[in-house]
TrEMBL record:
Domain of life: Bacteria
Record-listed NAD(+) binding positions: G11, A12, S13, G14, R15, M16, E37, G101, T102, T103, A125, G126, N127, M128
UniProt-annotated location(s): Cytoplasm
Lineage summary: Bacteria, Pseudomonadati, Pseudomonadota, Alphaproteobacteria, Rhodobacterales
Residues where NADP(+) binds: R38
Chemical reaction(s) catalysed: (S)-2,3,4,5-tetrahydrodipicolinate + NAD(+) + H2O = (2S,4S)-4-hydroxy-2,3,4,5-tetrahydrodipicolinate + NADH + H(+); (S)-2,3,4,5-tetrahydrodipicolinate + NADP(+) + H2O = (2S,4S)-4-hydroxy-2,3,4,5-tetrahydrodipicolinate + NADPH + H(+)
Pfam families found in the cross-reference section: DapB_C, DapB_N
Family: Belongs to the DapB family.
Keywords, alphabetical: Amino-acid biosynthesis, Cytoplasm, Diaminopimelate biosynthesis, Lysine biosynthesis, NAD, NADP, Oxidoreductase
Keyword Oxidoreductase: yes
Binding site for (S)-2,3,4,5-tetrahydrodipicolinate: H159, G168, T169
Protein name stated in the entry: 4-hydroxy-tetrahydrodipicolinate reductase
Catalytic residue positions: H158, K162
Naturally occurring in which organism (per UniProt): Ruegeria marisrubri
Gene encoding the protein: dapB
Length: 269
């Protein structure tokens, strides 16, 4: 019997799913024990390594998440909001750590994770990279140090396939800026200005989303005042940074008490 945690990857054929499978199989601290895709997907029933165009990995892609989770200690889930809510319940049933990278979740979907978190460890973050989680801390500090003479705008850019906006990372950065200022983001967020918007409102936090080509993920937090500007920037050039963070979270979650955590907890920032 090995103590190396067994990991299931949901959304196995996706951009992040495939990156996660490579990251887990290359790690000597974790074992790939399952790969899940949606019902009807043409990878179901195939070896996941072969489906990715490589050597067999001895793991067959399934559309039965509970059967896969029952053999695992952790589930790493970068899929879609409805799927993630369903997986949270099943991961709790199987007592697996559930690492959630999925973005675009509504407040109701986030609230729906709470019953699962009474039985299992959930680590959820809109961005699993070390760099962005450091940027979140810096954003909070800079926002706390400056007054409302500095207008805050969060600008993000992603590939043409991304379905949600603003990005999960942009929202994390906006929340951090709002927290630094001691306000609620919901009260001050300006999302996607268009038309005769009127002059910018003092104290508001703006969000802007660029979509194009194969941009992995870029985030700027702009603090603009009369006469000067500060720009905090993170540029992701490789999805491996998200996969490495997610695997770190899955390993960190082993032995933690049930509840909801984020990458700040995992990274000790
Ligand atoms: N937190 C982070 O660090 C990061 C988060 N993301 C987020 O991860 C999510 C996925 O991103 P990508 O991999 O680029 O998307 P993608 O569209 O390439 O992959 C999503 C996969 O999930 C699968 N899926 C959807 N519903 C499913 C279900 N019910 N059961 C099983 N599989 C299901 C799809 O078939 C697809 O293969 C997005 O929400 C994205 O914003 C992406 C990168 C980093
Ligand atoms: O969809 C993506 O690709 C990414 N999504 C996350 C987000 O919404 O912030 C993280 C990263 O920027 C890539």
């Amino acid at each position: 019997m090995t103590h190396i945690p067994g990991i299931v990857i949901t959304g196995a054929s996706g951009r992040m799913g495939q990156m996660l499978i490579r990251t887990v199989t290359e790690s000597d601290q974790a074992r790939l024990v399952g790969a899940v895709e949606r019902a009807g997907h043409d990878w179901i029933g195939r070896d996941v390594g072969e489906a990715m165009g490589g050597q067999p990995l001895g793991v067959t892609v399934t559309d039965d998440p509970l059967e896969a989770f029952a053999k695992a200690q952790a589930v790493i889930d970068f899929t879609a909001p409805e799927a993630t809510v369903e997986f949270a319940g099943l991961a709790a049933q199987a007592r697996c750590v559930h690492v959630i990278g999925t973005t675009g979740m509504s407040d109701a979907q986030i609230a729906a994770l709470e019953p699962a978190a009474r039985h299992s460890v959930i680590v959820r973050a809109g961005n699993m990279s070390l760099g962005v989680n450091l940027l979140v801390q810096l954003t909070k500090k800079v926002a706390a140090a400056l007054d409302e003479d500095f207008d805050i705008e969060v600008i993000e850019a992603h590939h043409r396939h991304k379905v949600d906006a603003p990005s999960g990372t942009a929202l994390m950065l906006g929340e951090a800026a709002a927290e630094g200022r001691g306000v609620q983001l919901a009260d001050v967020a300006d999302r996607g200005r268009d038309g005769i918007t009127g002059a910018r409102e003092r104290g508001h936090i703006g969000f802007h989303a660029i979509r194009g080509g194969d941009i992995v993920g870029e985030h700027d937090v702009l603090f603009a005042a009369p006469g000067e500007r500060i720009v905090l920037r993170h540029v992701a050039t490789d999805r491996a940074i998200f996969a490495r963070g997610a695997l770190k979270a899955a390993l960190w979650g082993q032995g933690q008490k049930p509840g909801q955590y984020d990458m700040v907890d995992v990274l000790g920032l």
